[in-house]
Specification:
homotetramer, 5 helices, 68% helix, globular, 108 residues
């Protein structure tokens, strides 16, 4: 059962090892694969209006979900190879963003 | 404290709402932003050999970690707008991949 | 006959007009399509070594050429919508690059 | 003077040779660089509406033109390394597209 990013990391690590794919999984190659998966996801939206992209017809959802999954899979695999803790770096980046885009008084 | 993808999802949702950014966060736009962040990450690796990409010098790591964080942030934000459970779709995709790339007997 | 970028620009303009596709060809959408085509091209190289990418087997070439064509087609279409003269901006950028990356004496 | 794609091809070839950059210019690496440049171009449009992307404010145009130039530069360099004649493959692809998307009688 995969319930967390840690589970997914271990599952992907084992999947690659069992197939002798580690030789292909350099950070360089994994960023290429990640970029390709993002493009496959983006392709679903390129000719839609923003409004259409917000209310996809139900028959489109399975394919979109599968592309989202592929993006996460390569991102988690890349983070593992780079020894990056995904949630920790995102938490740190959120702190940077909070300083970079402070709330104006009117927003508070 | 952000400890899980669920925490990150809620934190990003609040961050966008407080700044009135929801109007910009259509799935169409978020896939573009996701693609741009992946490119900023990939840029670190484009002229490196695969071997160099595997052993980045320590002074490069903070910038790479920050780009990885940006990718996760836009992916989580997009998944929230699409109402996709990231870990659940990745688990399902791993099942599909296991069928698509079965282990040969020699690997077992 | 398409012999120049100017020919290709006009041919693409007519192709889109005849199919009533101009409504989809905003610069925003065309950059998405351009990015998707580049990814389809990059996909051919993602698991290859650099050396393998330099000496593609002949049977791979037709597909690679077709992806290269798609990239040029969307780039030309985008430049037309932005009213950018492709060769002129590239010439100007080459001047900038010559200043940015001057030849060292040892290279001359 | 750079007046044609052939001029640009030769100019880029010489520029790379003079700087000993050919070692970096594998097709694999050049597709990555191309993808990064497309993303830098796309970044200008990601939060704009389609309508805004069609009528960019004049002060934005120089930066957009420079990104368009960078995309063409890497595409031409890649085509040279792959020994692909850009206009010829685009002409061939236009023939394929004409068969794939025939005009309906109502359009003629």
């Amino acid at each position: 059962m995969i319930k967390t990013l840690a589970d997914l990391t271990l599952s992907l690590r084992r999947f690659a090892a069992e197939r002798d794919w580690e030789q292909f999984h350099s950070p360089k190659n994994l960023t290429m694969a990640l970029s390709v998966e993002v493009a496959e996801l983006m392709e679903h939206f390129q000719w839609l209006t923003e409004e259409q992209s917000t209310g996809l017809p139900p028959e489109k959802l399975p394919a979109v979900r599968e592309e989202v999954a592929d993006v996460l899979i390569y991102l988690v695999r890349l983070a593992d190879r780079l020894e990056v803790d995904l949630v920790a770096v995102a938490e740190r980046k959120m702190e940077i963003n909070a300083e970079r885009f402070p709330l104006r008084e009117a927003d508070q």
